[in-house]
Amino acid sequence: MLLAFADAVIEGAPELDRARDAVVDCLGEAAMVDAAAVIAGFDAITRVADGSGIPLEPEKAAATAGWRSHLGIDDFWARKV
Description:
Layout: H1 2-11, H2 16-27, H3 29-52, H4 58-71, H5 76-80
């Protein structure tokens, strides 16, 4: 439910209202607001890092190489350019 909410927020999906309501129904309005704040924070941090060209640390690059490849994350920058 929280993942569906995060996906809907980031993608601007038409099911955002339904996802928001599901969080409120299950966890309450305060938890939905907290979740929305966390989603916004992660999105903003990523945009700041991308915009300023902050490189991924070598240790993190090595530790995440497998799942970044699996998800195609390393291709994101190439698609932006």
